[in-house]
Amino acid sequence: MKDFSLEFYEQLVEGYDSVLDRDGISGERTAHRLAALCAIGLTDQQGSHRLAFSKEEKEAKLLVQYWMEKAGMIVRTDGAGNVIGRIEGTASEKTVLCGSHVDTVPNGGHFDGALGVIAAIEVAEAWQEAGYVPEKSYEAIVFSDEEGARFHGGMTGSKAFMGELEEEKETKRIDIYGKSFEEVMKENGLTMESVVSAGADLSRYDSYMEVHIEQGKELEKLNQSTGIVTGIAGPAWLKLRFKGEAGHAGNTPMNDRKDALAAAGAFVSSLTQLPAKASSTAVATVGELNVFPNGVNVIPGEVTCTVDVRDIQVKTREKLLKKITSLLEEIEKSWGVSIEKEVSMKIDPVPADKDLQKTAAEILGAEAVYLPSGAAHDAMIIGRYLPMAMLFTKSRDGISHNPKEWSALKDCMNTIHVLKKMIEKRCSVTEQR
């Protein structure tokens, strides 16, 4: 039987037009590297299983480190396990940063994170081939634990890089195997102290850029390879408890019920109409719902659920939250139930830098497409402190976190070409004067 990673490579290069191999960027090299990472942590379902701080993630990081060194980069690993390859600039103390992650969700896809890491290194490879040295320094980075599948968190490496981690909070974290965060760090040759003190000198950094698959269908609908991210949506989680009265399903008349599930159902159904009234980028989702006492012949007396509300602007997200509150008040009156509300999490959205968006648009010209990111990324953490840009690559059927995740090599390479030009412009002191 043919090795799956070989099949994966052959599918990538099938029909690929080598005209995209220019300016030192190589589609074949990119395909080989995507296939090589695909082979690490390959599951029986032909997905990727590289949880954070696992031997699989470590193996992937070591491979990436080798590629960085091959591209002429000086490589270091910081106290959080982030792998950083550096090219020293000639005329500035500032550094342009670019990267992503190689950890995955259980049985995930082969492009999420991996493409961004390979794209960042491909820029250095192209420069080495051309003998080009940037005026500003350039770093490609692999962040640890972006997905959060192991510790039910996420963005650990980027938070550490930004100096956001606190020992008191990290000490309490337990992974899916029952191991403490500190124990897992020790297994990886790290310490709690090294992780929480891994913060970089941000004054030395100019900006951050990241390539990622879209995880949506807009680019596919528009038949465009690359999208310019306008911002990363910040989630607000609203925990709700609908309290009615449990009763016998046969003996309680329909006009004398306080059915918590019926009220919750009316809320969920009406919720879908609200985001568009707040903004074109707002979304709201109920993905979790629990019914009590959950008996076949019992009118539900209580229902709990969580509403995930997101938008790329705080103002419009807050507008949506107010509309949800008004809807809940209407549901209480209509269904005779009481509803308890609690905001369990609220993270501010992070807009992408306008100048970097403009640079991307100038490169793409008439094909420029602007998209919000509904999912969180390391760029959301970095963007709190530095000018940030993200480029999306077309994703087939919008599938992500799934073995069927797929982006055509043509689309990957088109995006990498845009990234390279953006980084070169940002690394040029002369051009920005």
TrEMBL record:
<keyword id="KW-0378">Hydrolase</keyword>
<dbReference type="InterPro" id="IPR011650">
    <property type="entry name" value="Peptidase_M20_dimer"/>
</dbReference>
<dbReference type="GO" id="GO:0016813">
    <property type="term" value="F:hydrolase activity, acting on carbon-nitrogen (but not peptide) bonds, in linear amidines"/>
</dbReference>
<dbReference type="InterPro" id="IPR002933">
    <property type="entry name" value="Peptidase_M20"/>
</dbReference>
<dbReference type="InterPro" id="IPR036264">
    <property type="entry name" value="Bact_exopeptidase_dim_dom"/>
</dbReference>
<dbReference type="Pfam" id="PF01546">
    <property type="entry name" value="Peptidase_M20"/>
</dbReference>
<feature type="binding site">
    <location>
        <position position="147"/>
    </location>
    <ligand>
        <name>Zn(2+) 2</name>
    </ligand>
</feature>
<feature type="binding site">
    <location>
        <position position="112"/>
    </location>
    <ligand>
        <name>Zn(2+) 2</name>
    </ligand>
</feature>
<keyword id="KW-0862">Zinc</keyword>
<dbReference type="Pfam" id="PF07687">
    <property type="entry name" value="M20_dimer"/>
</dbReference>
<feature type="binding site">
    <location>
        <position position="401"/>
    </location>
    <ligand>
        <name>Zn(2+) 2</name>
    </ligand>
</feature>
<comment type="similarity">
    <text>Belongs to the peptidase M20 family.</text>
</comment>
<feature type="binding site">
    <location>
        <position position="101"/>
    </location>
    <ligand>
        <name>Zn(2+) 1</name>
    </ligand>
</feature>
<protein>
    <submittedName>
        <fullName>Zn-dependent hydrolase</fullName>
    </submittedName>
</protein>
<keyword id="KW-0479">Metal-binding</keyword>
<feature type="domain" description="Peptidase M20 dimerisation">
    <location>
        <begin position="231"/>
        <end position="334"/>
    </location>
</feature>
<feature type="binding site">
    <location>
        <position position="112"/>
    </location>
    <ligand>
        <name>Zn(2+) 1</name>
    </ligand>
</feature>
<dbReference type="InterPro" id="IPR010158">
    <property type="entry name" value="Amidase_Cbmase"/>
</dbReference>
<dbReference type="GO" id="GO:0046872">
    <property type="term" value="F:metal ion binding"/>
</dbReference>
<feature type="binding site">
    <location>
        <position position="212"/>
    </location>
    <ligand>
        <name>Zn(2+) 1</name>
    </ligand>
</feature>
